[in-house]
Amino acid sequence: MKMRDLAIGLSVALALTPASAFADALEGKRTPVEIMAEAAPQEWRTFDQENLLYIDLASGTAIVALSDVLARDHVRQMKALVRQGFYDGLSFYRVIDGFVAQGGDPFEVRDIGDAAASLDAEFEEPLSAVDGRQALARDADGYASQVGFVNGLPVGIDDERETVWHLHCAGAFAYGRNDERNSASTEFYITLQPQRYLDRNLTVFGRVISGMEHVQSLRRNTPPASEDEDVGEKIIAMHIGVDLPPARQMQLEILRTDSDAFAEYWESRRNRPGSFFHFRHDYVDICQLPMPIREKAMADAE
Question: Which of 20, 141, 175, 292 is the most exposed place for a label (fewest CB within 10 A)?
């Protein structure tokens, strides 16, 4: 049975189970923690350092997993700017509580070098872009026909238009723009909480997978009108992982979202089998589904 069919079958079976027998239907099911602990080594995937973005801040380092399937022009732009040192010494100049932390060059004084002056929007792309990349585990959603994951990053799916896009869950990494759809260039933001109404209006091309606490703790700040005003907390440096010395590269791995273990993990989050829960919702918001990520060195030592 395919993973998607298995997940759908479990959901239907649980949905049709009488309330009085619901606990019995979950008897013996593993908890999310147990599933992660018992997943086979081949069900984990190590992040490629070429697609990890390290953001060094005074409080620590945040690591962003860049998309390796969608929004490729935006990913290329970010890598080019980072490798030119464009962001080093700039700041998070717009940090709004519960919304976003935006960083870059608010006064547009830095030379962008070989990077593009503007990017064509990649708000959504043909669903065929992910074919053969990874199976899409799917679920219901209010902002999309269905939602799922591609290579560990959450996506929305429009079955009628046959399109797919990355979601504005907490930690989403995207480029800002002006009103004109093709005006993104250098200014990026990280969502501090889910902002799903922005889906398909801006291009998300990554997600923070480590160090989100450093982003959340940034000093709240409104955009400065001049360089004499508070420009927010400094970006010490930004690097692509593969460009860092091996000792600085954090080896992170994620439970493969095309694995049987992840299908079970998703279902366990939908209907918690633990004895603490007396009411199960038979639903999980995709942005509230914690991604199973661990440090590889720690996992190997166990």
Answer: 20
